[in-house]
Write a structure and sequence with these properties.
Layout: H1 9-23, E1 28-33, H2 35-45, E2 50-54, E3 63-68, E4 81-88, H3 97-106, E5 114-119, E6 122-127, H4 131-137, E7 140-141, E8 144-150, E9 161-168, H5 173-180, H6 185-193, E10 197-199, E11 202-203, E12 216-219, E13 223-233, E14 239-246
């Protein structure tokens, strides 16, 4: 099985261990998994066991997963997720996703216990066991004093995009990263080799990897973009693509 999951072998081994535990009747609750990891879980387990997921938000991308037999009745509280909403004065500017994530990481909070971060209203999902620690210790982000309180209602995440049009000579990953994020091919290749580029939430280390319509590309510290490959081609062979950049 592992040969089908190149680059994700350790993750698959962990899921197989979860499956063995769940087979014995145990309910397994994971940390937050991104969409790529969620897809692997579903493929590895198939119909062998029940798999449930929840991220604390409507339209959440990162979710905790429950692996168990189908005789368990699952409710949202079983996922042990808290959503913390920020109360702060934005006179120093609005806080962004990266500001919150950086502040949490500086507290020593691991990325796997943090779910989605919503900018409007500023809030994030967290594993229950980390909730009190964060409320006590996360009092300031950048120059803003912040108070976090738990919310009970479901918040809907609504992604906003900025659309741009590009002409590219090919759909190679390095060329797309260079064009979309306006960096040199050399820097694009360095980013790929350093593990700072993801396609559909998976780190890609092959610069010649060919992308396709609807792929989501991300470059660390730059952002992410969903591409639409059109059927328009110039006389010189350049392809017109549309980029939907996540704000």
């Amino acid at each position: 099985m592992l040969e089908h999951y190149k680059g994700d072998e350790d993750f698959v081994r962990k899921i197989l261990d979860y499956v063995n535990q769940a087979d014995k009747g145990k309910m397994i609750l994971t940390k937050f998994f991104d969409p790529h990891q969620q897809s692997i879980v579903s493929r590895v387990i198939g119909n062998r066991l029940s798999v449930h997921s929840f991220g604390g938000f409507i339209n959440a991308e990162n979710k905790r997963m429950l692996i168990c037999h189908d005789y368990y009745e699952i409710v949202p509280d079983d996922f042990h997720i808290s959503v913390l909403k920020a109360d702060y004065n934005d006179s120093f500017g609005k806080l962004k996703h990266s500001d919150v994530l950086g502040a949490l990481m500086n507290l020593g909070i691991k990325r796997e216990v943090i779910g989605d971060i919503c900018e409007s209203p500023l809030s994030f999902a967290i594993c229950d066991e980390n909730c009190d620690y964060i409320k006590t210790h996360l009092r300031k982000i950048k120059k803003s004093s912040v108070h976090f309180g738990e919310v009970n209602e479901l918040i809907e995440i609504r992604n906003e995009f900025k659309n741009q049009v590009f002409y590219v000579s090919s759909l190679r990953l390095d060329k797309l990263i260079s064009s979309l994020f306006r960096i040199s091919r050399i820097k694009a290749n360095e980013a790929i080799n350093s593990g700072n580029v993801k396609k559909n939430y998976q780190i890609i280390s092959n610069a010649s990897d060919v992308c396709k319509d609807a792929d989501i590309l991300s470059l660390r510290h730059y952002g992410r973009v969903k591409i639409h490959v059109t059927d328009k081609v110039t006389r010189s062979g350049n392809i017109l693509i549309e980029g939907k950049f996540y704000k």
